[in-house]
Amino acid sequence: MKGHDAMTEPTRGASASERIKVVRLADGPLEEIHVSATPAEGAADAASQARAIYSAVSEALEDVGSLRIVSERLFGNLSVKEALLSGRARALSAAGVPADGPVSVIEGQPVEGDALAGTQLVLVRTAEGVDVEPVCLDGATCGYLVTSPDVRRLYLSAIHGVVAGDAPGSPEEQARCMFERARDLIVDAGLSYGNVVCTRIYLRRILDWYDEFNAVRTPLYEKLGLTDAAGPFAIPASTGIQGSISDACEVFMDVFVVRKGETDTCPFETLHNPLQSEATAYGSSFARAVSVDVPGGRYVLVSGTASIDEAGNTVHVDDVRGQIRRTMANFKAVLSAGGAGLEDMSHAVWYCKEAAFASVVREEMQSASWPAFPFMVVKADVCRHDLLVEIDGAAVIPA
Description:
alpha+beta, seven-stranded mixed beta sheet
């Protein structure tokens, strides 16, 4: 691969290196491919950096002409967004991969350089028996509904609450509108919000109004029937972290929905972390992680994970190394609860309150013998003032 390490460590349908990982999951006629990639050092500019990383992704895949990107997160500097998208489009078009689908370009500021931190993609191979339908919002494609014989999957990208032609509402109004729009898109696709397995939510000014955001989400989830008097019932995994797509947009999210068969039952198992309290115990409505069994394998979707203990308290305050170690232990434990290990990861992002923390994250991963993997590391505020780092991610375990 040009500009990337040679792929090594093939395991369980996966190929991995420090710069790129590809995991394939076969579900009958559907082939779903998960890719994480980070840029090689030394790219000259944003467009060249994007062109190099997407060229490497294309080279790592087979028969790219039959692939469709259904979900994509690109973490980089918004000041060079157009250059990043231009480089991406040139590389994908040269490889014969359609570049016209939605992509969440997230202000995840790289801790090295000033352009691109990395990309995460889900692609599906079109085949007889697999339908891939675009989902539209405000006249533009915002996701895809993928239907195979036994499972329907819906991937929604950058759903927000800023309505075209209207003045942006307050952060709380935008959050409420965002959830309502996502719900309507899900229902229009023949699914329900109870089928949502994971949301990745980005708040432009998270430390200013995270409590108010939870005051919107929690009662909405109750109204949707995702909770009951006994506690969590069908609350999805989630990330809540600093991120932006524009100055006008206070909050947006990517959504992954799974419906198995024709029954509208909750498609996932809620996973519990023995090292942490439930997030609902301190007013935040998300599961620590969920696992979803589908024909051909399993997803383990891990929420944003930080240095929080069994009582819900931040531990190792002002100690970045201590917080990283506890975060790593929490993340590994909840992966294990879903029958996954670090070698099964399909994507992961480290969020650091200060760019200088990135080198400490890498030192601690190396000391703990974490596997070669394209970890994205970006500068972003976490949901509490005293939290210095956070990681989210997922594992895909082929059968």
